[in-house]
Write a structure and sequence with these properties.
The chain is of the alpha+beta class and 175 residues long. The protein has 4 helices and 7 strands. Strand 1 and strand 2 form a beta hairpin. Pfam families: Rotamase, WW.
């Protein structure tokens, strides 16, 4: 196994029930969704992008169930976010302004054609959906935070939103 940047006794395992990677301590048998403290975030990002990224997001954004859409997103959290931690950082300390700067940089790279939202989400999103290229699957009205839902439903398939702010943080959404 290549270096995932985890502290001693920690490894990345795969949950079959959720089809997502998680963190497991072989000594204490503790398991968790967020990386343990002491994790090297940069090494973990590279490791997860290489070993735990999902197939390309290719849905047209139209739901099979009436009234549902499919979307992917890239989330940048900040210290005022509802849960200021993620799969790559046990404690997020960046300010809202710093998070805005980060997400605007991501948006510029996506809009320039340098990269795609899905490719960038794999290593940069603070949501566990990063493992699935940001894919949130199908959802209907009332299933997401209102600001997120309003922005997602306003997009046409293939479109990417501007920055959308919710209690979770700052998002770019692709339908």
């Amino acid at each position: 196994m290549s270096d995932a940047g985890l502290p001693p006794n920690w490894e990345v395992r795969h949950s079959n029930s959720k089809n997502l990677p998680y963190y497991f301590n072989t000594a204490t048998k503790e398991s968790r969704w967020e990386p343990p403290s002491g994790t090297d975030s940069e090494k973990l990002k590279v490791y997860m992008a290489q070993h735990h990224s999902a197939p390309t997001f290719g849905a047209d954004g139209n739901g099979v169930n009436e009234g549902k859409i499919r979307a992917a997103h890239l989330l940048v959290k900040h210290k005022e976010s509802r849960r200021p931690k993620s799969w790559k950082e046990a404690n997020i300390t960046r300010s809202r302004d710093e998070a805005m700067s980060v997400i605007l940089s991501h948006e510029a790279r996506i809009r320039s054609g340098e990269t795609s939202l899905g490719d960038l989400a794999t290593s940069e999103s603070d949501c566990s959906s990063a493992r699935k290229r940001g894919d949130l699957g199908f959802f209907g009205r009332g299933e997401m935070q209102k600001e997120f839902e309003d922005a997602a439903f306003a997009l046409k398939p293939g479109e990417i939103s501007g920055v959308v702010e919710t209690a979770s943080g700052l998002h770019l959404i692709e339908r």
